Amino acid sequence: MLLQQGIFVFICNIKKTARQHLLFMNTSLRQLFLQHVAQTSDAPLQLEINRAEGMYLYSPDGQRYMDLIAGIGVSNVGHCHPHVVQAVQEQAARYMHLMVYGEYIYYPQVQLSKLLCAQLPPSLNNVYLTNSGAEAVEGAMKLAKRYTERPEIISFKNAYHGSTQGALSIMGDELLKNKVRPLLPATRTLHYNVKEDIAAITTQTAAVVAEVVQAEAGVIAADAEFLQALRKHCTEQGVLLIFDEIQSGFGRCGTLFAFEQYGVVPDILLLAKGMGGGLPIGAFIADKKIMSSLSHDPVLGHITTFGGNAVCAAAALATLEVLLQNNLMAEVKEKEQCFLQYLQHPRIKAVRSKGLMIAVELDSFDTVLQSVQYCIKNGIIVDWFLFAPHCLRIAPPLLITPEEIQTACTIITKSLD
Ligand code: PLP
Fold this sequence. Notes:
Strand order of the largest sheet: 4-12-11-10-7-5-6
Distance between the termini: 75 Å
Bound molecules: pyridoxal-5'-phosphate
Structural class: alpha/beta
Shape: globular
Radius of gyration: 24 Å
Strand content: 15-25%
């Protein structure tokens, strides 16, 4: 009897497994995606992509999409750049994970840090590699507090610095914070590009975190005078000035880093996104004298298991080599002008740009949504901004050609007819 029951259960289990297998075979990837992959909006794009190369993404049924957002400012050197892919493959075959945060010596990390520092002013000479942009923000905030022994971090209205709780605390918009309070105390936001607000930065302030170009606000570039006044005041008050170039860096604005266009040097520079050419990596970079406050009193000022992982570091080194060797920054301004020339339509209220970081201002979020949907149907991927939902986001790989710009703009303007 017991044996029969056992056999029955066994057969039922086999049938169940077979049913699940059949269900899996018959269930589309889209259904499985909706069932098992966490979503953060109730209207995910649901674009199914199975290959990407250069400027383009490809769906399984062969539809080609021109990527005008570069995975939100990531694929500056294009998707699957052969030099980056080769570096990743070679590194993966050699070793992947050893141990990071400045303990073991390994080639891709050392060479990446050296090459990065060689592009920067002498005071930015020491690199802490992280997993992401938000982790770079967190590390830099902690570094500033440790170094200055002060409590306060100041940021700006409409700033986006990431989604972890420290980074959220200095976000310049309240809506996304409200459900997760309490956040960090001793944070304040000032008005961006308003010189009068700078006086609110005092000797209680450890650091001021500023984007050189506010991305999610809909591409608001800093005024040179504002950044210079900010630098001067921070120096006078002994406050560390942190530039978040996570979105504006790696050639996006026409120079390797946007701050180079302002004659202002930060105390700490934050990088990520385009840095890894598609793999996750970020960094906070400072003078060794500042950075060394992570190593004592107490030790281990910032710890990360994977930050600067060997494969990601190799990808970042290869990405930087591609940017420098091909001088991809050199044509960015020309391509920006191309966009400005073709983005003409009575329904476009304004176009703001800094290199290939472009916001096309329309009359409402509804118009933006309609335009995004039309563009995607016609093979062009555009998006909007977190704090400027009435603006279309354009931030293509830097490789985009003038012909591709014209094609893309024709479809964008048609979407507004
Ligand atoms: N800072 C800026 C300016 C960003 O645009 C982002 C991401 O969009 C971040 C920080 C956070 O980077 P990550 O998403 O890698 O944590």
